[in-house]
Backbone:
């Protein structure tokens, strides 16, 4: 295993226990996965800065000590959303102690050189990559997107291995960094017309459960499928299963480069998706029969500009029903553009909130007393159901209609 | 069962204790109470069992990568296993046990998994990569 003098010095404890352990993890991950070499990574993405997934106060102290040790990130390191709106946390009814706790982790990460993206759609705000680029990402929806859409190469990292990559600029070469491990395994024949972006959520959720950790290959999807639709598809596949890469015939780069290798050679299972499967896929995502909606949560993953514009266009001149909380989640960067072009004003005038830096999955929404949520995202459906909230899943328009009427009509 | 068996070191350190054995995967995120270390996954064969102070013998992690933080937190609060033995460590588990300083070995002979049962007394040497059965009688 080739280690630099700097890396050996970290392993010897010269930068403290936190950094030493992070590099010990890197060395062991290399051994356990039978890696033969390291690859240089162009970008790292960290995820669990959030209060809810890091190990309580101990996790925050860990990041603070690491930052104080003098460790700095060697490559561009971007950040997933956190559990508060960093500019206006009071707006979402979050308590001060919780917010301060979160701010501590944020300060530590920025001190080490992290880019304060705080979004799960970083590719909409500058994280774009070339075919074959190596990355080390944690956020599962972005792992799926970067591997599939760009044909970049990343494993589904965890926070510590990603921190190791941020500190060293490299990652053990195994798994999805190796072309032969990227071949499609489950062929999915799409025999229905996919229209709304939520159709891609439903399809992804359905296929993800069957694919598990394997690589699905989609046949029969339109060549002009929107980027937003592929964001939704990847997030859903990564949530119901542990999919890190998918191919779409005629669309995504690996399979365009070599249709036989990625689309045929390793396929071991074939599925056909018809109208009946899609109907079932939607039904499975509706976990309650309740029709009274008190929370509408859109933007998982964080919406792009076009979706914000579509929501503004729907809400213009309308009013959200009293007693219904509506969150439209996006990145701060996209929100700032929509502030200037007027969409944010339209959305907020209607009584909805444009939420940035965080989302319906990371804020402890159950404590806010919501009972029944409407969403257009399979990923949000999964996590918020887990918090004990009843969920109605459907199209973006269906959710917005429920925001106005307070009633789910599908 | 008795004797010493050689595996592979995943995390250094030694610990001994009573075993908690399952043939089912464990999801620490959502399947284990992060405050008490009690297994809460409905239908799991270890449902309601505590991990604190035990040598955990299980086939693999399952579920969210966030489970790593739960293992680390349990280790810090002494509510988690004192040592872990499993067939093959994955990336998430490596992160958890090194950060949580939990002596851990993998790749021990299959016999160990065939014969070990809950309540056996084991000594795990994560540095040497060995496990010793300390059962008497």
Residues:
């Amino acid at each position: 295993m080739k280690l630099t003098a700097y890396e050996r010095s970290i392993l010897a404890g010269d930068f403290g226990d936190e950094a030493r352990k992070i590099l010990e993890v890197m060395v062991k991950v290399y051994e356990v996965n039978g890696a033969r070499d390291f690859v240089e990574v162009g970008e790292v993405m960290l995820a669990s800065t959030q209060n809810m997934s890091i190990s309580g106060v101990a996790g925050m102290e860990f990041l603070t000590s690491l930052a104080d040790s003098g460790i700095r990130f060697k490559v561009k390191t971007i950040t997933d959303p956190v559990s508060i709106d960093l500019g206006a946390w009071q707006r979402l009814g979050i308590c001060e102690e919780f917010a301060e706790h979160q701010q501590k982790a944020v300060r530590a990460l920025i001190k080490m050189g992290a880019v304060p993206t705080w979004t799960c759609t970083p590719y909409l705000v500058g994280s774009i990559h070339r075919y074959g680029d190596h990355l080390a990402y944690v956020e599962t929806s972005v792992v799926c997107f970067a591997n599939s859409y760009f044909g970049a190469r990343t494993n589904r990292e965890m926070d510590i291995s990603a921190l190791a990559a941020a500190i060293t600029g490299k990652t053990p070469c195994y798994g999805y960094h190796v072309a032969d491990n990227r071949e499609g395994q489950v062929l999915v024949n799409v025999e229905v017309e996919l229209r709304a972006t939520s159709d891609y959520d439903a399809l992804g959720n359905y296929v993800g459960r069957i694919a598990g950790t394997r690589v699905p290959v989609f046949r029969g999807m339109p060549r002009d499928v929107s980027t937003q639709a592929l964001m939704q598809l990847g997030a859903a596949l990564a949530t119901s299963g542990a999919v890190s890469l998918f191919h779409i015939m005629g669309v995504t780069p690996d399979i365009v480069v070599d249709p036989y290798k990625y689309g045929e050679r390793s396929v071991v299972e074939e599925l056909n998706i018809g109208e009946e499967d899609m109907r079932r896929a939607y039904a499975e995502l509706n976990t309650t029969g309740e029709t009274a909606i008190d929370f509408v949560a859109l933007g998982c993953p964080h919406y792009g500009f076009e979706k914000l514009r579509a929501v503004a266009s729907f809400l213009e001149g309308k009013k959200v029903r009293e007693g219904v909380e509506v969150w439209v989640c996006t990145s701060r960067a996209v929100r700032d553009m929509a502030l200037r072009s007027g969409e944010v004003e339209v959305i907020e005038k209607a009584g909805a909130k444009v939420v940035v830096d965080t989302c319906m999955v990371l804020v402890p929404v159950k404590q806010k007393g919501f009972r029944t949520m409407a969403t257009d995202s399979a990923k949000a459906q999964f996590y918020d159901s887990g918090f004990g909230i009843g969920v109605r899943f459907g199209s973006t328009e269906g959710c917005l209609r429920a925001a106005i009427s307070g009633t789910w009509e599908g | 069962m008795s004797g010493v068996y050689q595996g592979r070191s995943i995390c250094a350190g030694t610990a001994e204790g009573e075993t908690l054995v399952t043939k089912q995967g464990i999801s620490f995120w959502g399947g284990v109470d992060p405050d008490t270390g009690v297994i809460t996954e409905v239908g799991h064969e270890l449902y309601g069992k505590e991990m604190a102070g035990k040598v955990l013998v299980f086939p693999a992690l399952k579920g969210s990568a966030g489970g790593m933080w739960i293992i680390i937190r349990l280790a810090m609060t002494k509510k988690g296993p004192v040592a872990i033995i499993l067939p093959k460590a994955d990336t998430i588990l490596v992160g958890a046990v090194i950060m949580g300083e939990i002596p851990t070995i993998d790749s021990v002979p299959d016999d160990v998994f065939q014969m070990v049962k809950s309540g056996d007394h084991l000594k795990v040497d994560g540095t040497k990569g060995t496990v010793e059965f300390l059962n008497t009688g």
Q: What stands out?
A: Chain B touches chain A through 22 residues (CB under 8 Å). The longest helix of chain B spans residues 67-76.
